[in-house]
Specification:
Layout (H helix, E strand, L loop, with lengths): L4 E3 L11 H17 L7 E4 L1 H9 L6 H18 L2 E2 L5 E2 L1 E7 L9 E5 L5 H9 L2 H18 L6 H14 L9 H19 L7 H15 L3 H10 L7 E7 L10 E6 L11 E6 L3 H5 L6 E2 L2 H6 L7 H4 L1 H18 L3 E8 L2 E9 L4 H13 L5 H7 L5 H4 L3 E2 L7 E4 L1 E4 L2 E7 L2 H9 L4 E5 L7 H6 L2 E4 L7 H9 L3 E3 L4 E4 L4 E4 L4 E3 L3 E5 L4 E4 L4 E2 L5 H13 L3 E5 L3 H9 L5 E5 L7 H12 L3 H25 L4 E5 L13 H11 L3 H11 L11 H6 L1 H20 L6 E6 L5 H22 L6 E6 L2 H5 L1 H4 L5 E4 L1 H9 L7 H9 L13 H17 L4 E4 L7 H10 L3 E4 L4 H14 L1
The chain binds phosphoenolpyruvate and magnesium ion.
The site of phosphoenolpyruvate (PEP) has 10 residues, from strand 27 and helix 31.
């Protein structure tokens, strides 16, 4: 058991291989800061392993552990020269969570523990500061009752607010010791009424209650949601840190603050943070008082009237600045630091790698290479590929007139529009109906995490750049404007009113710009982002390390152009059925599908040929010099059939068929399981003329491009939904037959490859036979996942959550490749290569843009991944990281 509790100064820590795994991030870093000689209040860490023991022991602390904790507490008493529960010089402690990776605000913290009706008097006497002692005691009762005893905090907040109203003051700091005295009595009455017990006076009961509560908060709903979103295994557990208290609320030579060593929003190499004089930590993060900036410059940049720490506490500021530099040099990363100043003495309470926007992550990584703090390889590994998405996302079109109705802090960049909602549940409900929302809250709390995830953007009336809303939004890549004091929210009436008297109701559409802090009425057009020099540099480093090629899934000239600009090295999937969705083409497609005779079908196909050919010319031009995989038609038929009287009428006038004939033919074509029906190469087998037309369009387009003397494109003609050798053989013969014809007609030579999707389990298992006729395989992991599990990709949304809740799936298998599906890919890879050493292997299901799946593809030895245009940079970076991690 002694190995499960560690004093921050314990020599045993040195021997631990991965301190964060055992001590959690906070515990490991506190111990490290101590080792660096920084001022850290004494304390100890109860290791993450105890979390599991706690749950196995019926959510109770066992006796051995209690004994170890008491022993370690004695050690802190010695180091501080104070005693826990003492009536002369009482030791107070904080009890805080600390998992392996930081989960800001998701778990519980208790401060000022060790105060009771007697020790509060001793504290007052010792510090000669009655107001401070009473303020600390009421804070403790509030926090402990909420976190450990489950009394909701509004019970206490209401009492404070009403009291302030009666007294006619605005701020908590306007209340004196007598005011707090009365409120403490009221608080204790609330506890008695709600829990039917007195507020605990025994300091050990307080301590063990708090430690248990922190362990319990590991399984709280908000922590579970956060873990799910960030793929943190529940088996990791949290550590608990018990640390002697230092006080930022003892008077005007005291303060507390949060500071980043660089700007977390734009990455600039300047200290960025906030602090409050005469306050405790939770006042800064909870957004209950709006804090001031740390530096003079930040104050000036934001026209703030408050006094910066640099001006108010110049000596401590200089010391803090030095420490920040040292920490950054030691950890070789931007740090997010919590500190407290007690009677002008600086104490370090936490350091961790700071959460940052993608923009800031890229700039910091590139700058740190320039500063020789890290290598290029480290820089490439530093940026989370998933976050690049936000860099590539739209900004406001500044040429358009906009009606700015309020301003707030630019907390998380990106511009977005949506309907105003005032609750997280409503954001989630509308998200389920595919509606975009902006979640508007006075301030967010960790309970809002599902709403913040469901909403397109977040707007809050209170809180600074380090408030919960800002930190979480940045982590999620959601645009966020925080601390907009110009809006006044009325939850009951579901409206907010701005200081310029604009009223916005629930359901009204607004736009927020998280890069500038603007709140704008109505939807505003947005622009594609400019890629920064730092971004291009990081990408070029990534490209130099990766072996996997990155292609795109695209079938329109616009998407193809975007993808090429983002660095796509060809097209990995051009879904030709998507080229038929256009209004002027869909009639001919319907005509083709409904025709009963080959003559009628050929007539319809002849109308489609020029469109297809023209599309291919444009795409080949954009991708000139690069491979383009064109997949022959794979339409789930139901998507194309006429659905209403107008569509039937239109079709009737083109085909000459009566409405009734169309209806009955549509019924004939109806399938119970269209995803398993007459699609893919099965269509090509039944109606070869369709694929013939498509091949002709591809080859004629190629001839046109040749005439234009464009760098040649290598078309790769892909047959969908193959499961047998015979299917690919028949289809390949068809492609070669058409190619010969077009060659002869144009007296020219054309080069191309023929290959197949591997998207059915049988195809994967019989890959050796199929590879006899295929020059490439492209894994269609959407269908392969669907058919391996027998789970419909269209309907899985209804029950996948239950599967994740019940831990059957860690993650949606349609997002990250499942192990079983992965095994099939490995089998097909081995068998395919055995038959044909030169076979090209790629992936074109949605997984091609998912970093975890890309890692799998790299390990399996595929040649390329293909993903949607905006995921191309994500895939380039993920592919480099996969290589570097090998
Ligand atoms: C696939 O099944 O993975 C695939 C790329 O094809 P589609 O999504 O068009 O069925
Ligand atoms: Mg498919």
């Amino acid at each position: 058991m002694s190995n499960l509790v560690f004093n921050f100064k314990s020599k045993k820590i040195k021997k631990i291989k991965n301190p964060k795994f055992i001590l959690g991030g906070k515990g490991a870093n506190l111990a490290q800061m101590g080792k660096l000689g920084l001022p850290v209040p004494p304390g100890f860490t109860i290791s993450t392993g105890v979390c599991e023991i706690f749950y196995k022991n019926n959510k109770k602390l066992n006796l051995k552990l209690i004994k170890s904790i008491k022993q370690e507490l004695k050690q802190i008493e010695k180091e501080c020269g104070k005693k826990f529960g003492d009536l002369e010089n009482p030791l107070l402690v904080s009890v805080r969570s600390g998992a392996r990776v930081s989960m800001p605000g998701m778990m519980d913290t208790i401060l000022n523990l060790g105060l009771n009706d007697d020790t509060v008097k001793a504290l007052a006497k010792k510090t000669s500061n009655m107001r401070f002692a009473k303020d600390s005691y009421r804070r403790f009762i509030q926090m402990y009752s909420n976190v450990v005893l489950g009394v909701e905090s509004y019970n206490f907040e209401e009492l404070i607010e009403n009291y302030k109203l009666t007294k006619g003051v605005l701020l908590d700091t306007d209340l004196d010791e007598n005011d707090w005295d009365g409120l403490i009595k009221d608080f204790k009455n609330v506890v008695k009424e709600k829990t039917k017990k007195q507020f605990p006076q025994d300091v050990y009961e307080q301590l063990f209650g708090a430690i248990s509560a922190v362990f319990l908060s590991w399984e709280s709903n908000r922590a579970k949601v956060y873990r799910k979103l960030n793929q943190i295994p529940s088996a990791w557990g949290t550590a608990v840190n018990v640390q002697s208290m230092v006080f930022g609320n003892m008077g005007n030579d005291c303060a507390t603050g949060v500071v980043f060593t660089r700007n977390p929003s734009n990455g600039k190499n300047e200290i960025y943070g906030e602090y409050l004089i005469n306050a405790q930590g939770e006042d800064v993060v909870a957004g209950t008082r709006t804090p001031n900036y740390i530096t003079k410059k930040a104050n000036k940049d934001s026209n703030s009237k408050g006094k910066s720490m640099e001006e108010a506490m110049p000596k401590v500021y200089v010391q803090l600045k030095k420490i920040l530099k040292l920490l950054e040099k030691f950890y070789k990363d931007m740090q997010d630091v919590e500190f407290t100043v007690e009677n002008s003495k600086l104490w370090m309470l936490q350091t961790r790698s700071g959460k940052r926007t993608a923009k800031s992550a890229v700039k910091i990584a590139v700058d740190m290479v320039k500063e020789k703090l890290i290598t290029k390889k480290e820089a490439v590994l530093r940026v989370d590929p998933n976050t690049l998405d936000t860099l590539l996302h739209p900004t406001l079109d500044e040429t358009k007139e906009v009606k700015t109705i309020a301003k707030g802090l630019p907390a998380s960049p990106g511009a977005t529009s949506g309907k105003v909602v005032f609750s997280s549940d409503e954001a989630e409900r509308l998200n389920g109906m595919m509606q975009d929302t902006i979640l508007v809250r006075v301030e967010t709390s960790p309970e809002d995490i599902h709403g913040m995830h469901a909403a397109k953007g977040i707007l809050t009336a209170r809180g600074g750049m380090t408030s919960h809303a800002a930190v979480v939004a940045r982590g999620m890549g959601r645009p966020c404007v925080s601390g907009s004091s110009e809006i006044d929210i009325n939850y009951e009436q579901k409206i907010f009113r701005t200081s310029s008297n604009v009223e916005v109701k629930e359901g009204d559409v607004i736009t927020i710009d998280g890069s500038t802090g603007r709140v704008i009425l109505d939807k505003v057009p947005t622009l594609k982002p400019e890629i920064s020099g730092d971004f291009s540099k990081l990408m070029s480093w990534a490209d130099s390390y990766r072996k996997l090629k990155v292609r795109t899934n695209s079938e329109t000239p616009l998407d193809t152009k975007t993808a090429r600009e983002f660095g796509a090295e060809g097209i990995g999937l051009c879904r030709t059925e998507h080229m038929f969705f256009d209004e002027d083409r869909i009639l001919s497609v319907r005509e083709m599908i409904l025709s009963k005779t080959i003559e009628d079908r050929n007539k319809a196909l002849a109308k489609l040929l020029p469109h297809q050919k023209n599309d291919f010319i444009q795409i080949f031009e954009i991708m000139s010099g690069l491979p383009v995989t064109v997949r022959l038609l794979d339409p789930p038929l139901h998507e194309f059939l006429p659905k209403n009287d107008k569509e039937i009428g239109d079709l009737s006038s083109v085909t000459g068929l009566s409405d009734n004939e169309i209806k009955s033919r549509t019924e004939e074509l109806h399938e119970h399981n269209p995803m398993l029906g007459h699609r893919g190469c099965r269509l090509g087998i039944s109606f070869p003329e369709i694929y013939e037309m498509q091949c002709r369009a591809i080859f004629e387009a190629l001839v046109e491009c040749k005439k234009k003397k464009l760098k040649s494109t290598m078309p790769e003609i892909m047959i969908p939904l193959v499961s047998t050798e015979a299917e690919i053989k028949i289809m390949k013969d068809l492609v070669i037959r058409v190619a010969k014809k077009v060659q002869d007609e144009n007296n020219t030579k054309i080069s191309f490859l023929v290959g197949t999707m591997i998207e059915l389990p049988r195809a994967a298992i019989k890959a050796k036979d199929i590879a006899k006729h295929a020059e490439f395989f492209s894994f269609g992991t959407n269908d392969l996942t669907q058919t391996t599990f027998g789970i419909s990709r269209d309907d899985s949304g209804k029950f996948l959550n239950d599967y994740i809740e019940n831990k059957i799936f860690d993650i949606d298998p349609f997002v990250s490749i499942d192990e079983g599906v992965g095994d099939l890919i490995e089998i097909a890879t081995l068998k395919g290569r055995k038959q044909n050493k030169k076979i090209k292997l790629g992936i074109c299901g949605e997984h091609g843009g998912d970093p975890k799946s890309i890692n799998f593809c790299s390990k399996t030895g595929l040649n390329y991944v293909s993903c949607s245009p905006y995921r191309v940079p994500v895939a380039r970076l993920a592919a480099a990281q996969a290589e570097l991690k090998k």
